[in-house]
Amino acid sequence: AAWSDVFQGLLMLVVAWGMGLYLVFSLHGGPGPMFQAIDAARPGFLRLGGPGSTMSPMAYSTAILVSVLGFIMWPHLFMKSFTTSEQRIKQTVLAYPLFAIFLVPVLFIGFAGVLNVPADALENPDQVLPYMLTNLLPVSGWLFGLIGAGTLAAAMSSADAITHGAAVELTRDVILPLAPALTEREQVWIMRAAVVVIGAAAYWLAIFGAAGLVQLLLGAYGSIVQFAPLIYGGLYWPRATRAGALSGLVAGVLVNSYFQLVQPVTPLDINPGILGLLANVALFVAVSWVTRPASTEVGEAFLQA
Fold first, then answer.
1. How far is C-alpha 180 from the geometric centre of its chain's CA atoms?
2. DSSP labels for 118-146?
């Protein structure tokens, strides 16, 4: 599994760099001329809050914030973080920024289509790459296959870990406490069934959902970031209580869901996930102060583990 992830990651990076640079140089002659042309044709498009911008400075900043805080809250990531070695953590800290830099050309793909793809040509912005390859550039069949392989590599390397992590969390943290008599074999079958259900739900949202990939990601981050106060509070605040953590989590998810599903206009154009996080932290702290924490021995053993 580890070596397959390495191969998928390398293939994803090669395709991302190749396609990003190929499109930019073929359509614009390079990144510099591309951004100059965009700024000249659509003044303000590249400036947050400008006349042509699609996001306000507050919306953009809080979207970045919820992504940064929520990224490390995914169960499949912090499960690995809590079980890894100190040496492995140091290697990851050094290597991850390099990996993120390699993904920069992916952004070029979107910018390359700003002046070349008519606004009414796409049903969804996620279709910009196939449109440009089909209508603007002479591309052979093998290149389409390579792009498809790179896309699958990017999806599979994350999808397998996410679905398995979610299945484990559901089985061990939700179902097992309600049915502690379950055998190991029964737990394994529940996890397998959960993988199928979670994968089918994700497929349905991706194919039939109205939102694009960015909107789906921000929506997911809005809920997953609500685990942040629980994780950091449980690790570094001995006064944190179970009641405070659960009440904050529920409040954060409800606030985020309300502004995502019911009331799309948020105060000051703040990302719904950040509004939920503010409510989460406030209730977490307030309820923890008025409820009884676990015994000192339990807290010390957990913090020193």
1. 32
2. -TTS-SSGGGHHHHHHHHTS---HHHHHH
Query: What is the CA 51 to chain-centroid distance, rounded?
Result: 28
Give 290: exposed, middle or buried? Use CB within 10 Å, 0-12, 13-18, 19+.
exposed
Q: Which two tokens stand for residue 224?
A: 């997953």
pLDDT, tens only, 124-156 = 777 788 788 788 777 666 677 777 777 777 677
Tokens for 21, please give them: 């640079």
Compute CA distances 249 → 63, 231, 266, whole Å. Answer: 19, 11, 20
Pair 218, 273: CB distance under 8 Å: yes
Q: How far apart are CA 176 and CA 182, in angstroms?
A: 7
pLDDT at 227 over 80: yes
Cα 212 to Cα 145: distance, rounded to the nearest angstrom: 23
Question: Could you tell me which residue, 227 or 98, shows the higher pLDDT?
Answer: 227
What is the three-class DSSP state of 49? coil
Instruction: Kindly report the length of the chain.
Output: 305
